[in-house]
Amino acid sequence: MDRRSLFGVGGLSLLCTLGGHRIAADGDEADLAKLARDIPDPPGLRRARFEQVAQTQPAVGGVVREHWIQAEPVRWTIVPTRRDEMMDERVRGRTTFRALCYREYTAGWAAPLGPGQVPGPLIKAEVGDTIVVNFRNKGPAPVTVHPHGVFYTSDMDGSYKGKYTDSGGFVKPGQRFRYVWDCREGTEGVWPYHDHGPLDPLPLYKGLFGAIHVRPRGQRENDVDHYIFFHSFIPAATGLGRIFHCINGRAYAGNTQTLRARVGQRVGQHVIGMNNDFHTYHLHGHRWRDPSGRMVDNVTVGPADAYSLEFVEDNPGRWFYHCHVFSHLHDGMTGWYLVEG
Amino acid sequence: MDRRSLFGVGGLSLLCTLGGHRIAADGDEADLAKLARDIPDPPGLRRARFEQVAQTQPAVGGVVREHWIQAEPVRWTIVPTRRDEMMDERVRGRTTFRALCYREYTAGWAAPLGPGQVPGPLIKAEVGDTIVVNFRNKGPAPVTVHPHGVFYTSDMDGSYKGKYTDSGGFVKPGQRFRYVWDCREGTEGVWPYHDHGPLDPLPLYKGLFGAIHVRPRGQRENDVDHYIFFHSFIPAATGLGRIFHCINGRAYAGNTQTLRARVGQRVGQHVIGMNNDFHTYHLHGHRWRDPSGRMVDNVTVGPADAYSLEFVEDNPGRWFYHCHVFSHLHDGMTGWYLVEG
Amino acid sequence: MDRRSLFGVGGLSLLCTLGGHRIAADGDEADLAKLARDIPDPPGLRRARFEQVAQTQPAVGGVVREHWIQAEPVRWTIVPTRRDEMMDERVRGRTTFRALCYREYTAGWAAPLGPGQVPGPLIKAEVGDTIVVNFRNKGPAPVTVHPHGVFYTSDMDGSYKGKYTDSGGFVKPGQRFRYVWDCREGTEGVWPYHDHGPLDPLPLYKGLFGAIHVRPRGQRENDVDHYIFFHSFIPAATGLGRIFHCINGRAYAGNTQTLRARVGQRVGQHVIGMNNDFHTYHLHGHRWRDPSGRMVDNVTVGPADAYSLEFVEDNPGRWFYHCHVFSHLHDGMTGWYLVEG
Question: Looking at beta carbons, which residues of chain C come within 8 Å of A187?
């Protein structure tokens, strides 16, 4: 497959920029290792010992939020029920493949905290805190953790930058890196984190993304928060025969996360675009005040955009939340929102 | 045509999710009936008698806005003049097909209030009012009326939900349903309504959509309000040989609605995306303050997004209003705005 | 090439609406002349003598900002270094073609002010000023200058309008036109200008666009302002074998403009979409308050949208600024932002 042809018609294949030579990328995990084989170590890479990374002191009153996260393969099923509950019909064909995920562990990666998931663990903090992500790569190729929104020095960026790459932008299989990010004033919000390594965007398309939520210091939490990634699993990343337009790793109502709330609760929803497409978020039976002051029930969310909304629940019943791009909706980008009276 | 192949390259065909079997959808109206043939009645469908639907009482000071609307076929011509006035050239080929429309009638569907149109009738209300849409389906397949923005209980949602479908989400040919929607505080704005039945999005792509405008109670109306749907007529919905990027059912300046105003008037424009594409709305010779406070003259409008703008007219002349996506503009998504001095 | 087929899959070709007959458009400059051959002069065209154009008096305290601009061909190289510094790899194939540019001259077009560039010259003004663009067309086909955002009467619109076209909407090779635009209250902002003539959008896709920046009267300027056009050079406009997703006329980090600032400076960035695609703007290591009040680091920018952001620089290092649509990023839509401590 040619480097220029990977993103094909309708996003059915995936661009992967890797030298001028032709590469094969049919979605099998082994490909990542093969693709990585020809990438030289960046010349200026400093291999600081993991333990030596300076740790930013949190602001007065803040705390250190330490996570132990590992990138690793996971056998993942996109449509576990094999049914589309919106259309009450069967979803045919294979939907299981070897994904990549960020998986949370106890300190020192001693034991996993639950199964590997797409998306990765939610990282929560308050303004003034410091986030420390102790990261280990147990995947087949170099990957990273690139955060949005929080403050980080350029060596904590988690981005591959060719010959200017820092250690955190090129974490090879078996290696570790300690990312330290500062939640200073002005970083409040919900943000994505994702791989931004030398094989970008292939590992991300296999599942390497998650959310960071930085709340203003001392602010009361919502009663319920929903984190909604609009993304896709495409043949070049899965080896499956078709595209799936997904929410949080799954496709079709009854498989995607069923969101829940009760009347009277304050509900926050946080929608993040995490593929090559533009989306609109629509929630049936509800509307909310946009940050600009208007009432809306449908908003545009582009690649890596993060959009947060809040409302007090007042409408019991069974509702759809979905992308209003019709072809995304009908290829799986929808789910149930169940409200108890 | 396979269920997965209906949305083709450039939106030239249309996805229609209907069981795992192959279906033909070349845009002929008969297809809808054929497609509907295999859809079973939802198991839990309650067939409440039309007359028994409880009617929400409007708030103190509010009124009931009752409409009698029928879904029906209409012979529709996309380019009546057969000319593109922007380029001063002929538009070749057929542009007439059998569309579907929401048509307004007098009480009891006794007599039509004018011809069938795309988009359907404008539904106007003030905060505190109740909207009642007495709906009858005289089309070839089950359709519904799904509103955005207003408040409705989940049985008034007008959405097909597989085995969870309520009566209002599956109105078969010849049947009626009474939708009751509440314009409570927080529903002010301009919103689309559209089919969301078991054949979604095919009936919508044939013309089943319209606008609701809920104004704050007692607020002075604009001197002029323009409602602008950006949508498309695609081969799978029309049987015609090409796509038309349309405004309010028509394509190309001189065919699309010619908007009008006079200097000194307060003008409201309400732009709604109603297809699979993202658009930007641009108006020549004018600019306006965005809800966020900035001056803009060009804004993104995604599928089912509704964007309202206002300005006091100060610039006489002949202007274009158009989608600034170049390929949409040149396939018809433009019109004249004529301002008298 | 058929008029309807010019915008092909993935934007690789370009729509050009020119009568019902078939046209060839392989990107060679000669094509424009050929395409223009069959366009008749608009019937109502008034050929006002250049010198007779009435000049709006600026408001009290305002000034006339006069520019002498010429549309002309320029030999343009999209990837001068022939390297992609993000991926540290070679960019193969030809990247040089005959573009079109708006080039600034001294009064009377006596001498060029530097080489021809894509984008064209930045036009700066304050509220209350009048902008005068003395325009001469030395390209191969009729082109115009259509501004966004500023106030202009309909004869100063620079748009081809079929039989309603004014002189400023059809400036033939060798002809001149004086555009006079009014920066009255409410025109503050950054706006694109671009060709909107009878061959739209082909000349724009060859490079005919630039920016206008109208600042509030007397407002202190930012220490640094960056103007960032997201656009593309496509085969139908270049004759080259592939698409390049570009920033300010160039593709790939190290070729696109390297933005610079120092810690402590107030930085303004102004992002404008100038092709058929939707984009998101992302800047590593930074975030800013959106006009709606939220902190963001990634925003959607559609065709002809203009988005301005500001922040005080606080983060030294080597950063990427890029479009977060992955396929655009990997086809060149990225650059370096270097911040000195």
Answer: 287, 295
CB contact under 8 A, C151 and B278: no
Within 10 Å of residue A73's Cβ, how many Cβ atoms?
17
**Is residue C170 within 8 Å of residue C198, measured between CB atoms?**
yes
Per-residue pLDDT of chain A (341 residues; tens, 9 = 90+): 333 334 443 333 444 433 333 344 444 444 788 888 888 898 877 665 676 666 667 888 899 999 999 999 999 999 999 999 999 999 999 999 999 999 999 999 999 999 999 999 999 999 999 999 999 999 999 999 999 999 999 999 999 999 999 989 999 999 999 999 999 999 999 999 999 999 999 999 999 999 999 999 988 999 999 999 999 999 989 999 899 999 999 999 999 999 999 999 999 999 999 999 999 999 999 999 999 899 999 999 999 999 999 999 999 999 999 999 999 999 999 999 999 99
Residue C327 is nearest to which of A7, A19, A306, comparing CB atoms?
Answer: A7
Per the CB < 8 Å rule, is C316 touching A4?
A: no
Q: Which residues pair with C282 in a beta bridge?
A: C298, C322
Alpha carbons A115 and B102: distance in angstroms, whole number: 50
Q: Which residues of B32-53 are buried (b: 16+ CB within 10 A; e: fewer)?
A: beebbeebeebeeeeeeeeeeb
Cα–Cα nearest to A288, from A270, A262, A322, A311 = A311
Tokens, residue A171: 């974490």
Cα angle B41, B44, B48; round to 5: 90
Quote the CA–CA distance of C284 and B287 in Å, as a whole number: 32
Calpha distance A236→A111 (Å, rounded): 32
CA distance C149 to chain B (A): 6
CA distance B149 to chain C (A): 21
- Taking alpha carbons only, the member of A13, C332, C333, C95 closest to residue A2 is A13
B325/C276 CB distance under 8 A? yes
**Chain B environment of C4 (Cβ under 8 Å):** 242, 331
* Whole-prediction pTM: 0.94
**C-alpha distance from C261 to closest chain B C-alpha (Å):** 25
Query: Which runs of consecutive H residues, i.e. helices, occur in chain A?
Result: 29-37, 202-205, 235-238, 326-330
Euclidean distance between CA atoms B310 and C61, whole angstroms: 29
